[in-house]
Amino acid sequence: IDCTVNSVHDGGDHFVVFGSVHSLSDVPKKKPRPLLFYHGQYTGIEPDKNTPADWRNDLEAFLTATTDDTWL
Question: Is the pTM of this model over 0.70?
Answer without folding.
Answer: no
